[in-house]
Amino acid sequence: MATAYDFTFLRLADKADLPLRSFAGRPMLVVNVASACGYTPQYRELENLHAARAKDGLVVLGVPCNDFGRQESKAEDEIKSFCETAYKVTFPMTGKVSIVGADRHPFYRWIADEAGEGALPRWNFHKFLIGKDGALVEGFASSAAPLGREMLAAIDAALAA
Predict the structure, then answer these.
(1) What is the 3-state secondary structure of the chain?
(2) Which pTM was predicted?
């Protein structure tokens, strides 16, 4: 049975492989991100979450995507610069991917297989919590605040599992 650990992205910084298995045993919050979205200020909360919970084992992973409203049209070096300058992002970021259509990244194909097409992101800043075992735990809508009560409770449970 496939898990999130079976998938690899490319790192935003240097285009090197970023195998999710490198995070095995740690819960991950995988978030499709965009620079020109009404939810873009969530980068701040995501960075605060990373700073507060990385020591406990949580991995926050940003996945730039231009599929929703064409709100991530920047080149990858511009995305990296924007995230570092505007939001001081230090959590891992992947290269830009597609989430919808024929070019959908295999990770998002797996999400659809696990939870159905309806579970896939409909907009930027949709979040997926992956457990320490690499299984999909839960999805959160774009409007879910990274530091909101519901998300923190789910993250705490994943860290404790």
Answers:
(1) CCCHHHCEEEECCCCCEEEHHHHCCCCEEEEEECCCCCCCCHHHHHHHHHHHHHHHCCEEEEEEECCCCCCCCCCHHHHHHHHHHHHCCCCCEECCEECCCCCECHHHHHHHHHHCHHHCCCCCCCEEEECCCCCEEEEECCCCCCCCHHHHHHHHHHHHC
(2) 0.96
